[in-house]
Amino acid sequence: MIDNKVQQLIDKGEMLPLMEEFYTIQGEGSHTGKAAYFIRIGGCDVGCHWCDVKESWNAKLHPPTKTDLIVENAGKYANTVVITGGEPLMWSLDYITRKLQNSSIKTHIETSGAYPLSGKWDWICLSPKKTKLPLKGIYSEAHELKIIISNKHDFIFAEEQASKVSDTCELYLQPEWSKRDKMTEQIVEYVMNNPKWKISLQTHKYLNIP
Ligand SMILES: C[S@@+](CC[C@H](N)C(=O)[O-])C[C@H]1O[C@@H](n2cnc3c(N)ncnc32)[C@H](O)[C@@H]1O
Ligand SMILES: Nc1nc2[nH]cc(C(=O)O)c2c(=O)[nH]1
Ligand code: SF4
Ligand SMILES: [Mg+2]
Asked: 64-66 and 144-149 as β-strands: parallel, antiparallel, unpaired?
């Protein structure tokens, strides 16, 4: 059981259920190849059957951690932080992003958009899921739309989602990892026929880094 005082700090975003933090290379999307410090916050109820971090789902397994300590640590490593999860927007991210930006650290988020947008972001990667669609407000804010392709219908879903984002939002199709052989081939063909899209690969998995 989390006591009242800790719960109040979590509500204010001054503590967050931290699963892991690591310095690595952004493997996906627009910022692929850029060194960044990743902060993975526990908790997600979106339920993607192919999720590659199911261990993140149960927030209770991840200890409430002081946000100031997380920020202090991040600053030792990188000038870009990627906040991911789990679904990071289940938590209030105003406090952590203010602290990071005050330390001149760029704030990036990986999100399904299924919870209200909090925080101030230099980069929002929106990766919508059919099981729990993004809330309306985030589409106009996303800098990057990244759709995971695990079957043919996902291309139709990708176009539906692309019709909701801004004109300047970058569009990516990323193969679901366990289907990568089959789907990468189809994505390559799709992108050549529909060049507003780009392909995103999970390059960190090919590189064997976190
Ligand atoms: C683990 S999620 C955490 C952030 C947030 N819950 C989300 O889904 O955007 C981080 C990124 O990995 C992608 N992802 C998760 N499992 C994947 C898989 N098996 N293959 C390809 N991409 C995957 C997600 O779509 C998301 O873009
Ligand atoms: N290297 C690396 N890049 C990533 N980009 C998004 C990731 C995520 O899990 O959110 C991720 C990740 O887990 N590792
Ligand atoms: S929304 Fe993200 S963390 Fe949650 S199940 Fe889907 S891929 Fe995993
Ligand atoms: Mg990952």
From this structure: unpaired
CATH homologous superfamily of 4-207 equals Aldolase class I (3.20.20.70)
Q: Is the CB of 144 under 6 A from ligand 1?
A: no
Atom 6, ligand 2: residue with shortest CA distance: 28
**What does the block give as tokens for 85?**
């999860």
Give this complex's ipTM: 0.99
Cα–Cα distance measured from residue 106 to residue 143, given in angstroms and rounded to the nearest whole number? 14
Q: Which of 99, 48, 44 is nearest to 71 (CA)?
A: 99
The C-alpha angle 167, 169, 174, rounded to 5 degrees, equals: 130
Give the residue among 154, 164, 165, 159 at the shortest CA–CA distance from 131: 154
Residue 127 assigned to a binding site: yes
Q: What is the pTM of this model?
A: 0.99
Span 152-180, pLDDT tens digits: 999 999 999 999 999 999 999 999 999 99
Residue that is written with structure tokens 């908790």 in the block:
43
CA of 28 from ligand 1 middle (Å) equals 10
86 is annotated as contributing to ligand binding: yes
How many C-beta neighbours within 10 Å does residue 189 have? 10
Structural tokens at position 141: 């804010």
